[in-house]
């Protein structure tokens, strides 16, 4: 395979501008740039680097260091090139005797207040101050020693200006003695991240960078995104890993394996040791930004808990036995075939992973459909976004979001429903906040007061704090307002949508029983507020809807998705930049795992198994018949297992025991099976019920692609060799071969070629294209060779957009005297999903345990104090955790996260699920909360079980 | 699967389409079951209907003529 050449990622000094072309002359060269560009950027683009310190192209110029001075013919003085825009015909000189002298003077001043310990500094060789001293030819510093910030003592006394190093953040340090007060960090925190955690306190010689109210970083509002670290030109803010290991000497562009934003990263290495992950500025999803997870939380890849050898055992109460790969494959293949011989072809199945690559997922479903010979394949998207697939397919004709992330830059009104982007999708949140600071309006629909409702320089115009479970009633009431107040974009609906379905829908929503006033009692959303929000969305310009699991994880999840689609169609907010319906996908490759045919009823590319033409494509290529009937979904597999008819399962990279609802039921299902095969990095919770463990590889150890929430196919590139010896796709291939499959893939690129050849929406995708373009959004085929940033532009994929009646059906899960509170669940920034990875990093500094949020009123009547251990019980089960008292949640509602296995919030969740997809109803459980002294029986029993079943009898070396 | 759970899932689907005219609703319920339920589950549902037990939404009954009969009783 051709080597991938890193595209140019030089710092061009100031951000790019859009505008008509302007031509000027710099040092005798003619340069043409868009109007509004700085002279500095124009010079860099012409290949003339102007010395600079306080400018960097991720933030707006500030003009404080005075190192970037230039001379312009016909203008007096020496303006700063970073803050001076270009003009037609301008003649600029960047290197004159006068400039040289001035710059040397500037540098001399800087260096006089900077320690001269370059040789032992972590940034040695990677420091812009050092570079600039060289560039301007600084050879001596003539100032006598005097007041400074870098010596801890002045003479006998302590130096009052000296501030000690702040090592409070686990990943980066702040060493004030090296700070040149260029404010790049402050601007990065404001403009790029949008957290406003940093300020420059004091003036002149006294000015210092100050996190929060002069607190240590860890105690400040800092969310550890790393934007300031990246912006800092000196060693002041720098990664601890660089201080420990040394500067990196090679890099590979790859994609974050955490959330559905799919940030591109430059993995920087020394040899095969990863030194740091730096967000890639040409990444089209993240545009050079990142969050604490992707940027810093990769230590799990080397964690000692990783299992590197295959293991087997006959019974789950036995210790594990390490075996060779060959033994493991032969053993598993034999067990699976025996089960099929005894219990039928359909007695085994498998689960694909939303964390593995598209290529790996494709192979797993291929093995199940082709080699197992049934359609019992499902994926964890079942428990998160399966309603998105169903709902958007019904209305628009395709199971994916409509926009790219860049689209938010053109949105005027943004609705965020059931999502908490600052925690769940932080880089998208930063981009959204940037747009909101420019004046776009925000509507939040969420039971909880998420951070976006009010944070520095961002405030929601409306927060509709609905009762959990009433999404459909609220959205239908918004539709009622839009229809009855004449706010429908009739031209759009007539041209683009099925008129008859619109009329039925309009009559349906206009019914007075669906008005905000009529449903207020149920939803607890004040009718006036809801009306105002609906008007704003319908009339405020480009309206974009972003939603998350708070929409899908309900018994009416699919209906809610369709209600959202209806709203967007009725207001004409589809088919151009700045609008659209955008699911915020939880895991890195949920979109991809759905695209790749992970659902029991769908072949890759969302073609139903009933579809004879689609089946024929694979039948002829694979040389095996494919079952024309849908297979079992995860919850059905577990039900069938309990009933004794489903006996074996291959689970790649998922932890269903922790992530799926009603833990006891999952445990019972797994315990009833004869051969549970788990492929993962760690002995996860599910593995405590497994008979075969196949070690997995991290995203750093394999090639492939992930597809993010905007349908963007990003390359994952192998950074180091797989620690267990095989990448995950090789493991699946070897297992399939052991079961008789004739597969001979040598590289994931060949798997992608098969995907492209068989899936119309992927027809144009190849590794060559991805290397050339960086990434591409499907559909990518002859009609759209460069991919499709915005969908449904001239017509909906299904032709005419279809309105669907969305009747509100209350969930069966109701509160009552025994369980009077509603529990809803979510996630937080520093931890990821079941936490298997993030818990094995210093991210636990921020979130060491799951907490139960409870309103002060509910806490008081129960005698619950802050930090107290409480018992959380539902009709499914009970667990214990600590309470925290807050008015973020409304009275009657409690909230927790599910990142820690000790808590096992899913012991409490029920087996109720979405009517269409069986996506579990995580977001509504009736519970009771009471003070307690110790763990629940389940927690105690489970802890004992987990410990016993994780024993490994190491083979004698 | 427990008959209660099976009935609940079928009833949930019926409730969603209840706003449509009856015949259209019945067809939609049947199509949904044909498209998304494994044959084994449809067989169980048919058994449940045949046994007369289980409290099922009228639309589930109305959907029966449109249900695809599973080829093998237990896939
Ligand atoms: S790490 Fe991010 S949030 Fe923290 S101070 Fe730096 S830019 Fe701000
Ligand atoms: S910490 Fe770094 S980026 Fe911030 S002002 Fe100091 S030198 Fe500049
Ligand atoms: S976790 Fe999400 S937002 Fe954070 S770096 Fe990874 S892809 Fe980006
Ligand atoms: S780089 Fe222009 S003033 Fe600092």
Protein architecture, described:
- The complex is a heterodimer of chains A (957) and B (75).
- By secondary structure, chain A is α/β, with parallel strands linked by helices.
- Chain A contains 29 helices and 39 strands.
- In chain A, the strands form 11 sheets. In chain A, strands 17-16-27-28-29-14-15-39 form an 8-stranded mixed beta sheet, with helices on one face. A 6-stranded mixed barrel of chain A has the order 33-37-34-36-35-38.
- The radius of gyration of chain A is 29 Å and the shape is globular.
- The model of chain A has no long low-confidence stretch (mean pLDDT 88).
- Chain B is mainly alpha-helical and 75 residues long.
- Chain B has one domain.
- Chain B contains 4 helices and no strands.
- The mean pLDDT of chain B is 82.
- The interface between A and B is medium-sized, with 34 and 25 residues.
- One iron/sulfur cluster (SF4) binds at residues 179-185, 209, 231-234, 236-237 of chain A.
